[in-house]
Amino acid sequence: SAYQRIVVTRGDSGFQLFLDGNLQFASHDEYRYHEALVHPAFAAADGARDVLVLGGGDGLAVREILKYDAVRAVTLVDLDPSMTELGRRFPLLQQLNEGALSQPRVRVINDDAMRYLAEQPSERRWDVVIVDFPDPNNFSLGKLYTTRFYRLARAHLAPGGALVVQSTSPLFARRSYWCIARTMQQAGLHVQPYHANVPSFGEWGFVLARLEP
């Protein structure tokens, strides 16, 4: 695409999606990652009617979000229209995400996540914010792991709401993992790091956050 190289491979155990050579998910165990990403945030939030997903153009996090009947609206912001179109139209992925990106409760916006947040009016708040970007291995991704970005996200988090960030592996990238947690703290969030085992990746980390302790 104009932003990245998207590759899908298929083998006996299912199919895999790579972005710029980095594995994003394998179909046989992605549920472990996406359940760990989404459901703790819903458990931590006081209520979840309006949800924002930043990244996650494959629609797999949205699939988990739509399991909650109380959710009235999901806004997904992903920079790459080729990725969201793949999530909508590629048969294997559409089947895996259960058609999530075509559901009436879901609005898909192709924009830079930081720019999108910066352009929102101050009163615009979401009950749950799911941040599902690739690991910060270049400048354009790195800016999405900064105090500036987390302050923007914090400004649009509703009172009693919860935010979660995929945070790379606490086992294989320990310094990066704890750097993300500390950066979120410096942005004024109260954080709770946690991790889950995803066989395709090993031990994988997340950081859950709220405005309140």
Structure write-up:
The chain is of the alpha/beta class. 32% of the residues lie in helices and 31% in strands. The protein is built from eight helices and ten strands. The chain has a seven-stranded mixed β-sheet with strand order 6-5-4-7-8-10-9, sandwiched between helices. α2 links the parallel β4 (50-55) and β5 (73-77).
Number of strands: 10
Gyration radius from CA atoms, angstroms? 16 Å
- The backbone outline, from C-alpha atoms, is globular
The average pLDDT value, as a whole number, equals: 95
Structural class: alpha/beta
Helices, by number, come to 8
Q: Which regions are unreliable across 5 or more consecutive residues at pLDDT < 50?
A: none
Task: Spell the H/E element sequence.
Answer: EEEHEHEHHEHEHHEHEE
| Largest sheet: spatial strand order | 6-5-4-7-8-10-9
Q: State the oligomer.
A: single chain
In percent terms, what proportion of residues is strand? Answer: 25-35%
Distance between the termini: 41 Å
Helix % is 25-40%
